[in-house]
């Protein structure tokens, strides 16, 4: 997780029932402390939504509380505040002058990497990893404002328009965990109609199970090795990859619960759609939907190259750079991009060659009717078998790409060779399968 420190479990004896219970208790307490802080922010701003504050006071509250929130969650408070506001000031100055959004994105990424290098030379890699998630979300919001402003036909911004941008950038409940929302989604949430007490209670009832499920996954992520001893190296790899995914689901589901309570219908992630994905393409989309929306809208959709493959490569490159200079994340994201692209090309060819509904994306549904022109539709036996095979293959790709996120270097960053060494134990199988798919798609 980018935003939280995992509990220190070194004191526990592995595979001991008592240590498992202690681990569960410690992780649950740590999650409760963190989640309760953000829940308090969410509750305050849910209540403030019903009060008609003047715009100037509202801006002041957003900036002040966001600043306090960063200081609250950051180990080096002054440095974190300086970096956070440095991004803001530079980007907002660019927005006022209608600087192209791509320039703002590129410049912010350069600042992020420069800051990371400074932390590395100062032996503060762990600090950078704790603040990275906050800065990444901040860069995405600043970039969104830059694009929105650059594409606006208004030459000079009014104060009210600038104020809305500030509210969007500095919205306190979304500072730590996120999520990223588009500017239009934020305005819709902010301007949502007041609801009755019964409706407010209904939002809480909907949010609590999601929050509980997220915390449960966080406990499983941190403590599963305390209860279960792997019987083989492959089992250990499966559990390591599962731990990485479950920690991600905790952040997504916690955020989802807060978004529900704030009255927004933005979907963050669907763990079931990731675990039982039709294809790696679905994994990429469902892993973090708001993050995917940002990359699709401002990178892939802009079609910098005539080649789809190059546009996919660029999208995954930007995605990795938003995490800073992280070899592990870069290699993993590019690997996932290559796997998704190769399977998409092969399945498209397979669907056309044998007239089966087996493409990486299912045929569209319109007006509750499946629009499928294939001879063998979704529910034919051979189609079900082929799609089941690819679903199982996607589950293996999840293990292959996630098993490299071990605890060895999680606090300081992974070296370049780490992923390659671990993938070597599986004989680089996902890459070999992907190469075979590309070759088959050319000869079929």
Automatic annotation (TrEMBL):
Top enzyme category: transferase
Enzyme Commission designation: 2.3.1.250
The keyword Plastid is annotated on this UniProt entry: no
Coiled coil stretches, renumbered: none
Record localization: Membrane
Gene Ontology molecular function, alphabetical: palmitoleoyltransferase activity; Wnt-protein binding
Protein name: Protein-serine O-palmitoleoyltransferase porcupine
Source organism (scientific name): Caenorhabditis remanei
């Amino acid at each position: 997780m980018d935003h939280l420190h995992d509990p220190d479990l070194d004191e526990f004896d592995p595979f001991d029932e008592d240590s498992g219970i202690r681990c569960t208790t410690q992780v649950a307490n740590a999650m409760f402390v963190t989640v309760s802080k953000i829940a308090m922010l969410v509750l305050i701003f849910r209540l403030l939504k019903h009060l008609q504050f003047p715009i100037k006071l509202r801006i002041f509250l957003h900036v002040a509380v966001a600043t306090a929130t960063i200081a609250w969650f950051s180990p080096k408070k002054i440095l974190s505040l300086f970096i956070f506001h440095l991004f803001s000031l530079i980007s907002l100055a660019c927005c006022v002058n209608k600087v192209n959004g791509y320039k703002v994105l590129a410049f912010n990424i350069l600042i992020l990497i420069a800051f990371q290098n400074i932390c590395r030379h100062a032996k503060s890699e762990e600090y950078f990893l704790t603040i990275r998630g906050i800065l990444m979300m901040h860069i995405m919001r600043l970039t969104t404002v830059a694009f929105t402003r650059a594409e606006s036909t208004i030459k000079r911004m009014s104060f009210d328009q600038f104020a809305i941008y500030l509210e969007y950038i500095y919205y306190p409940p979304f500072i730590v965990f996120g999520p990223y929302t588009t500017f239009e989604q934020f305005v819709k949430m902010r301007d949502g109609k007041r609801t009755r007490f019964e409706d407010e209670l209904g939002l809480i009832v909907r949010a609590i199970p999601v929050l509980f499920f997220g915390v449960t996954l966080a406990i499983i992520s941190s403590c599963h090795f305390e209860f279960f001893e792997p019987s083989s190296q492959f089992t250990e790899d499966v559990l390591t990859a599962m731990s990485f995914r479950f920690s991600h689901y905790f952040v997504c589901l916690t955020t989802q619960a807060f978004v529900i309570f704030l009255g927004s219908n933005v979907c963050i992630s669907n763990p079931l759609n990731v675990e039982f994905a039709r294809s790696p393409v679905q994994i990429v989309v469902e892993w973090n939907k708001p993050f995917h929306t940002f990359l699709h809208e401002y990178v892939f959709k802009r079609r910098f190259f005539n080649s789809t493959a190059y546009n996919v490569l660029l999208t995954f490159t930007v995605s990795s750079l938003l995490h800073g200079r992280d070899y592990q994340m870069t290699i993993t994201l590019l690997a996932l991009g290559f796997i998704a692209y190769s399977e998409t090309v092969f399945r498209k060819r397979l669907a056309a060659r044998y007239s089966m509904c087996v493409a990486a994306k299912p045929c569209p549904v319109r007006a509750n009717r499946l629009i499928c022109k294939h001879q063998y539709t979704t529910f034919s036996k051979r189609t079900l078998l082929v799609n089941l095979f690819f679903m199982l293959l996607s589950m293996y790709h999840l293990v292959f790409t996630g098993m490299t996120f071990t605890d060895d270097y999680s606090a300081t960053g992974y070296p370049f060779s780490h992923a390659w060494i671990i993938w070597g134990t599986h004989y680089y199988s996902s890459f070999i399968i992907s190469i075979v798919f590309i070759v088959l798609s050319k000869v079929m």
